[in-house]
């Protein structure tokens, strides 16, 4: 071990470089590879075309999530194209001996929910998936990021990809979060400060009291959205909170292996004096419940604020106006009181038990607004079961909500859960791009508390007034 | 999948002076259901290009036949969002071989290089010059010279250099890809695995 102080990121990255290429990328070893039905079929086809096979099938884990219906999962999938993709995943994983949690499997759910909850995701690992929100797993002190389908083929055939090492950014948030301010608000706040491209080329470490005091679910929400400011990924040093979360999970190390792993995990932190290429500091007290008003996740404001005029917005005027036109909003509009047609709680960003607890804390004893359509979608069957076991389902049912079955659902609207054109949705997911939740859909990103407040009042409402 | 070798490309260009063009715009999620890499060009920029009834939107640049060519020129932060390589496939399948912007999202840049599209990052000032040149003459020719790593507006002779690492440059010029390289390294990888933590 070198005496030079190094960052958490450097420690994990450098331990995975198989070869450094002069004036080129690193040959980078991958410990865990997640695949799903949408970005893997062409990679498997590529293997066949080249006559290659899967080098380490035990290091790849498959789940079906992007394309799956969130009702009647026991019936055959009706969309023939979706059904074909799901079948391809089943066939390909069976052919190469890869673990597959398909539709109907009790372990099935969103890839970035099921990986951690089954103990597949561990500190110090390198983790990739053909999905940009793979950054979620950075919450455990792993280097985790999204890759394209060519790279999925590389990992399948060689367990490596070719990656230039990103630069290093640290984001420190200290102080105490205010009432009704959730991890989602923290990350939406950071992105609003840095913009949707502000961390491109960087890998982020989140540090400071706010993250130290955060649950694993909250840390996953934060790391999940690292990509929304352009970062390749984000990570948080593992600590007792991390170890307590992992211990006892199905695929986590046990007995002697646990002790050995724990000793290693405790070395995974940034040394005093280690250098970052850039560093930002924020004060928790400045963060209020957030909401987005535009068509990229950087276009967010405190819920009590008015939409900025374009000169303050930091992007070109034409692009800014295009964005507001799409949303049907105007400069200087108040966000509070804007009508909401749809509410979506779920996704790899906010589809974990803590998110449903927060949602239930507001809807308890209230009723869903009549004109609001709400989609309540757990991130996995395990989360679904927790919702039932903790009595949250009763609260939801009493308030007029129905619980759907796990999947990515309206986050990217590949299945039938599409917001109709022109309608407004408050969504706990990660992207408010044009058409993301269905052609013409208008998305406002927010936390589970803001989503709940919108669901019961039918308009954008400050959750602090309901708690 | 093999792609065409890239050395020098001289072509007119299609201007798209919009910032933060994300991959959901390049190819919406509902068109990701294929199990083969075919026909994605038809749905490139689908919701900007077509109305709900599939009639073309007249004011969208791909539907304006005064613009054509193998180069797409776009505003900053092109390709943000989803990791879907389908975005790069759609651009390639439509017929583009090069995207020019003042800033690219990381995953899109990687995906482009892996499928044979050259991402050329220029300064904001040079990007404006390109847009002006195309405004003055929709048929304005750009020359992308990969061996020299330069982009030139032929009408004015204005030129700028761009970055690409030597490894990727060699691959693009020869039509090689990373999978070829990694297959040649399997013994090293096996040796590495025997010492790895997980």
TrEMBL record, chain A:
What is the free-text note on the cofactor? Binds 1 [4Fe-4S] cluster per subunit.
Q: What class of enzyme is it?
A: lyase
A Pfam family recorded for this sequence: Aconitase
User: What keyword terms does UniProt attach to this protein?
Assistant: 4Fe-4S, Amino-acid biosynthesis, Branched-chain amino acid biosynthesis, Iron, Iron-sulfur, Leucine biosynthesis, Lyase, Metal-binding
Task: Tell me which residues make up the Aconitase/3-isopropylmalate dehydratase large subunit alpha/beta/alpha domain.
Answer: 10-458
Q: In which pathway does it act?
A: Amino-acid biosynthesis; L-leucine biosynthesis; L-leucine from 3-methyl-2-oxobutanoate: step 2/4
Carries keyword Metal-binding?
Answer: yes
Q: Return the EC number.
A: 4.2.1.33
Can you tell which superkingdom this protein's organism belongs to?
Bacteria
What does the record give as the reaction this protein catalyses?
(2R,3S)-3-isopropylmalate = (2S)-2-isopropylmalate
Listed binding positions for [4Fe-4S] cluster are: 348, 408, 411
- Which cofactors are reported in the record for this sequence? [4Fe-4S] cluster
**PANTHER family cross-referenced by the UniProt entry:** 3-ISOPROPYLMALATE DEHYDRATASE (PTHR43822:SF9), HOMOACONITASE, MITOCHONDRIAL-RELATED (PTHR43822)
For this chain, the family text in UniProt reads: Belongs to the aconitase/IPM isomerase family. LeuC type 1 subfamily.
Cited NCBIfam families: leuC, PRK05478.1, PRK12466.1
Q: What does this protein do?
A: Catalyzes the isomerization between 2-isopropylmalate and 3-isopropylmalate, via the formation of 2-isopropylmaleate.
Give the quaternary structure: Heterodimer of LeuC and LeuD.
Q: What is this protein called?
A: 3-isopropylmalate dehydratase large subunit
Q: What organism does this protein naturally occur in? A: Flavihumibacter stibioxidans
Q: Which gene name belongs to this protein?
A: leuC
Automatic annotation (TrEMBL), chain B:
Query: What's a Pfam family this protein contains?
Result: Aconitase_C
Stored SUPFAM superfamilies: LeuD/IlvD-like
List its EC numbers.
4.2.1.33
If you read the UniProt record, what top EC class would you report for this enzyme, in one word? lyase
Q: In which pathway does it act?
A: Amino-acid biosynthesis; L-leucine biosynthesis; L-leucine from 3-methyl-2-oxobutanoate: step 2/4
In terms of Gene3D superfamilies, this protein maps to: Aconitase, domain 4
Coiled coil feature spans: none
Aconitase A/isopropylmalate dehydratase small subunit swivel domain mapped to chain residues: 5-123
Keywords, ordered alphabetically:
Amino-acid biosynthesis, Branched-chain amino acid biosynthesis, Leucine biosynthesis, Lyase
Membrane-spanning segments: none
UniProt catalytic activity:
(2R,3S)-3-isopropylmalate = (2S)-2-isopropylmalate
Superkingdom field: Bacteria
Similarity comment: Belongs to the LeuD family. LeuD type 1 subfamily.
> Subunit structure, per the record?
Heterodimer of LeuC and LeuD.
What function is annotated for this protein? Catalyzes the isomerization between 2-isopropylmalate and 3-isopropylmalate, via the formation of 2-isopropylmaleate.
Protein's recorded name? 3-isopropylmalate dehydratase
What are the top taxonomic ranks of the organism?
Answer: Bacteria, Pseudomonadati, Bacteroidota, Chitinophagia, Chitinophagales
